[in-house]
Amino acid sequence: MSNPNINWVAIDTNPKFQALHRKKIFFLWGLMVFSLIYYFLLPIGAAYYQDLFKIKVWGVVNVGILFALSEFIVAWTIAFVYSKKANAEFDAMAQEIINDFKAGA
Amino acid sequence: MKSMLNKLVLSAAALSISGSAFAAGAVADEFKWMTFAVFGAIIAVTMGITYWAARTTHTTSEFYAAGRSVSGIQNGWAIAGDYLSAASFLGIAGLISLYGYDGFMYSVGWLVAYITVLLVIAEPCRNIGKYTMGDILAFRNDPKKTKTVAALSTITVSTFYLTAQMVGGGVLIKTLIGIEYETSIIGVGILMLAYVVFGGMKATTWVQITKAVLLVIASLILVFLVWMPYGFSLPAYLQAVVGDDKVIAQVTKLLGDASVGMTKEELGQRFLEPGLFLKSPIDQISLGMALVLGTAGMPHILMRFFTVPTAQAARTSVIWAMGIIGGFYVLTLFLGTGAAMLVGSAKIASVDAGGNMAGPLLAQFLGGGENSLMGNFMLAFVAAVAFATIVAVVAGLVLAAASAMAHDIYVGVIRGDHATPKEQVVAARVASVIVGIIAITVGILAKGQNVAHLVALAFAVAASSNLPAVFLTLYWKKCNTTGVIAGMVVGALTAIGLVMISPNLTYPKAVIAGANKVLNGEPAIPAKEAQPAKPASSFICELFAMNGCVPSSPAKVASAEKPAKPGAAEKLAGLNAKLQPLEASLPTLTDPVALKAAQDDIAKVKKDIAATEKAKAKAEADLKTFEGQTTSIMGLEKPFFLLKNPGLISIPLGFLMVILGSLFTRDKRAEEMWDELYVRQNTGINAEAATAH
Q1: What pTM was estimated for this model as a whole?
Q2: Least C-beta-crowded within 10 Å: which of A4, B87, B555, B606?
Q3: What is the ipTM of this complex?
Q4: Is A4 domain-assigned?
């Protein structure tokens, strides 16, 4: 599985790769933590803040229903934001590293 | 074993003598031909797909990963087809139809799970992996050891999930069209084996895509019909739902004493408020953890990312899957509430206590009702989609388990990665047949068993065992073989152990007490004063039933004195006594209005008699089944672990064990391989390439 012809350490220590690594880690963890907090707010709210969830805001539509629907919107938004960022930025940075590697090899 | 064989032979015989195999189902006999026509059409299409796929399935890469030629969008549909099992497609609509808001809330976690898949699992796995989860773990860690553990975990998770699908599917097909349980299990098994053995991943993928498309079409049509009369306005539609008498009656029934003094408007509105079904927030958080982390550790979901050509395509496929899966759950809000309003929760629960028939019954109603051609065509269509669902999900699971058996254990461990390409494909096909036969056997043996806990268990094991190992292998430099093995073994055993002592199992004492209540009646209950909610005496007491623990109790409203309830026999005698004078009075009635009223009364009493007789028969059967038993199969009289979902404890424990095991041991290979793994997962250099066709 391992390919002895490739100097992986050299790529890993390449400043371009390190920059990609830092950007990705920061961005992914940010999104991940946000999505987890937002998700667990739903069962917590439904259990401990029922009075809030019962407030009617749009006809019979209450805060609870809007919050549950917002979970879908937030999940889709996170997916959209990540794919935009990855398509525009991460892929290009990775491609540059691959090009450097091919030029060097 | 002999009785098992007998059963197999009998069921096979039942398949050929079709007439005798059909008992009553939701579809009336006169319309059954239509259901079979739709079923036949779906089977024909999927067989066509399999024939086409089989012509290009020769190598291992083609068998396990469809030659890595599935596009991102196709894979997104296939993931949705793989994931929207009968439990989520019929089950969530059913929960919403019976419990309103809580059912909808339950669906959210199933979508959020894909954020974990998207952000941390899909792309690295595509870049690193070959065919199985074992390949990912073996990249840095000791290949033989980790492949063995990964394969065992994969087979365990798949078998739990598979059993739940097979049993659920058998019951479902029987409820819908009345085909005998064993016959449907064997039918599903043979069909699924045909897809997997001949068409491999390519056929499985396209069967899943076909099923997902059918499911979305069916749901869109139903939601269109339900929502259209209200001009597609959300408040106007929900206003109609909460104003409906059947919905109000259901809420009143669920609330019991608490409904006293509430206005009709408040009762209806309660359907859209939390708390009718999910009572324990800690249990829900535990379930949430298992879903959000478990989906990313499901072997059949992981496997789907090896079918696309690049990491970018893996990303696209999760985005599409999230769109389809999330959109589908939003539609179930309408399917569930629509069924509650139009069909009525009482009727739904009378066909299937879990509410699984909400969607099919709604389809029948919207098409024109029980005796209409269109109503039964719609029901047949939804039933056929349900059937396709079971087959598609089961095929994906069998492929995942078979790949672990053939690729990880046989080729990786036993043959030390030295099998010829031809041997590998043969091994894959043989393993599929073995897993398929196991699935059919377990499905038949588990007839009538309580399998609800198996889905929760599959997710919990995936989240506590697979995910910590895969995640830390991919992202933590110090992670090594000892850690991975310790985490996977402890995580899986903890999850399984906790479920075995949880309320998910059947406890004979409770069943016997319930049955006795039905047969012998209940004594009068004196009036009770209102009580505020009480927390458990300590947090650990929320989780375990330990000595000296005071369990938590929800707030209770004051209740009036309740009269004694009669036993079933007494109740039947009373109803029959009521029926006789009513029937005797019929010939004497001349006034058409009075005659109609009397006839309605008779119909109502007869319905009550039928329901009481059904309850009595069930109670008697329960008493017979559990006669002399006092403990669950684990030897407990009542659950010791109080949550239905073990994730809260087993997931952190799984992570902790990987971390501790890695910190306390040194593994030179794991450290040396880190640079390669990390560079490859981020850049895709040297990733498994697509095979050209």
Answers
A1: 0.88
A2: A4
A3: 0.93
A4: no
